[in-house]
Design goal:
single chain; mainly alpha
């Protein structure tokens, strides 16, 4: 299958489904290995964090873009991008850590460590997955 065979919408849907599906399996296995919890607990934690991240991503970026449209200076400077990243990740931690603590029945420090592991994993995973996806499906029209 090549990029020419996929419309932009089909490409984005394929990317999202593969990215989230593979990420869910790997993060479940990671939580199983590092937490010593059962499959239902680890899988539920992985699915819950994925759902929280997807919903938060949408809501945060909607709010950020709404704020951004009211700013007199247009564009995304390094300072604005840094603020976006820090605010996004900070908010995500505030949502994820209590969820992981509750779902997995652990303290906030242990939940924070699990969350930190997920953040590191997804940073590396995103780079590797995106590279592999582009090698398999070709570059999108916008990048050719």
């Amino acid at each position: 299958m090549t990029a020419a065979a996929l419309s932009p919408v089909a490409r984005r849907v394929t990317y999202a489904l593969l990215f989230e599906g593979i990420g869910l399996v790997i993060s479940t296995l990671g939580l199983l290995a590092f937490s010593g919890s059962d499959t239902l607990t680890a899988g539920g934690a992985a699915l819950g964090t994925m759902t929280i991240a997807l919903l938060y991503n949408y809501a945060f970026n909607w709010a950020f873009e709404a704020w951004e449209t009211r700013q007199p200076v247009r564009g995304r400077s390094p300072r604005r991008r840094l603020a976006h990243g820090i605010l996004f990740e900070g908010g995500l931690v505030l949502l994820m850590v209590p969820f992981l603590a509750w779902w997995m029945g652990v303290g906030l420090v242990e939940a924070f460590l699990y969350d930190a592991g997920l953040v590191v994993f997804f940073a590396v995973y995103t780079l590797v997955f995106t590279w592999a996806f582009d090698r398999i499906f070709g570059l999108p029209e916008s990048a050719r």
